[in-house]
Amino acid sequence: MNLNKNHTLKSCIHVRFSILKSKFEWSQWLMLNKQVADPPLEKLHYSFRSYFSGNKIPLFQFPVSKQLDCCQAGSQSFVITFEKHSYILQFKTITGLYYSCLSQQQSVLQDYGRTATYHKAILLNEMDFKDKVVLDVGGSGMLSFFALQAGAAKVYSLQSGPMAKYTQSLVQSNDQSGRILVLNRDLDSVVCPEEVDLLLTELTGHLLLSDPQIHKVLSVKKWLKSGGLMFPSWADVHLAPFSDEQLYFENYARAAFWQQRNFYGINLSPLHNSAVDEFFRQPIVDTFEVQILMSRSVKHQINFKEATPEDLQRLEIPFMFTLQQSGLVHGLAFWFDLAFQGSKATVWMSTAPTEPLTRWYQVRCLFQTPLFAKMGQTLTGTVLLAANDRQSYDIHITATIDQSGFTSGNVLDLKNPFFR
Fold it and tell me: Do strands 133-137 and 196-201 pair parallel, antiparallel, or not at all (unpaired)?
């Protein structure tokens, strides 16, 4: 933030009164009235009390200009600095920053492979939807409309914050107010008016599990009738060893900055090893040629209908690969498939490197030290996905070449991937 020293104290006081927590389920953008360059604290405080009591007239307006600075602060706040004052915009939930953005939803909807697969799976199994009650959880509300196209009698579209407003706007403009009912609720506090026949969700992320809401979706199953269906029905998480020397050294080179011994007269080299460790803790989100894979993949299945939120707290995937080529094993590559199992057809969507690229790409986790292996030797070990308090996972990998006894591995932070 660019704060004038003469206004630091005043700005801090303004920050104190500019925190938007409150009873709202999402944050409202602060807007600064240009005619009131320095509003008195009493007026600012009074305005907030009036705003929180139900008056939804914007308080301030921020003109978008070179004088406006904005940055994310922490996991669920933004700091906006305009002229000589700074304001904090604090979202009620950590996911509010993401799901309320139409730009993010546009990116999801424009993924043809993903959106077309959902549409195909629903319409091919229209007998499962005809005259049924459906609960659509999260996303943009598009699945609610797909369900109507398949003949659903009623759809509850569970959204929160601005997406609830956007979905309601689409419902009204498409004359579906009597059939799609928007529930403006967080997943933690949802109360569905009735049990449903089908549960639709699109809350999946990189390596399937990076979306922090996926745990909560499983708790919503309490509103699903016995024998009801879930779309997607299950997921297969695939992993396979890969060899990619360029990627390994490219990742190592990212820390070269910290080898400098005269950075404005400062020796940075004591931090080099720590920087290397940090970069190697980042899962790499990208795509690759299938030729780098050194073995057939193994898979771990997650049945969404049967799984509980507790089941996703700790996922242990043992593996054994018979290597089909000699060389250095630099790490493990991950992707996933989704299955939509209806009464008439089971439709699949794959994020494998052999399939058309999706918004989820693939994920690669590097070993700290590559392992040399010969064709025919076996690589065994375990991948442990352990849920952490940052609404994500720590990925613990251990791997051993059985014939040589050489061992390597890594611990990575799924919350902090590197988009290559």
Answer: parallel
pTM of the full structure: 0.78
CATH 2.40.50.140 fits 235-419, yes or no: no
Domain covering 98-202 in this structure, CATH number: 3.40.50.150
The burial of 215, by beta-carbon neighbours within 10 Å (0-12 exposed, 13-18 middle, 19 or more buried), is given as buried
Beta bridge partners of 387: 393
* Contacts with 152 (C-beta within 8 Å, 6 or more apart), sequence order: 129, 130, 131, 132, 133, 134, 179, 198
Q: CATH 3.40.50.150 region(s) of the chain?
A: 98-202
The length of the chain in residues reads 420
Region of residue 159 (phi > 0: left; psi between -120 and 50: alpha; otherwise: beta): beta
Per-chain mean pLDDT for the chain: 82
Region label for 117, one of left (φ > 0), alpha (ψ between -120 and 50) or beta (otherwise)? alpha
Give the pLDDT confidence score for residue 417 in this predicted structure. Answer: 94
User: Cβ(361)–Cβ(113) under 8 Å?
Assistant: no
- Cα separation, 400 vs 258, in Å, equals 31
Provide the 3-class DSSP secondary structure of residue 362: strand
Residue 274 in 3-state DSSP? helix
How far is 265 from 350, CA to CA, in rounded Å? 52
Q: Is 240 left (phi over 0), alpha (psi -120 to 50) or beta?
A: beta
Q: Measure the CA–CA gap between 273 and 256, rounded to whole angstroms.
A: 10
Residue 417: cis peptide before it, omega within 30 degrees of 0: no
Coil/strand/helix, residue 331? strand
Element (DSSP H or E) covering residue 234? strand 234-242
> Is residue 368 scored above 70 in pLDDT?
yes
- Decide: 19 and 27 in contact? Cβ < 8 Å: no
Rounded to an integer, what distance in angstroms lies between the CA atom of residue 166 and that of residue 139? 11
- Delimit the CATH 2.70.160.11 region(s) of the chain: 235-419
pLDDT-derived band at 46 (thresholds 50, 70, 90) equals very low
Q: Is 415 helix (H, G, I), strand (E, B) or coil?
A: coil
CB-side exposure of 142: number of CA atoms within 13 Å? Answer: 15
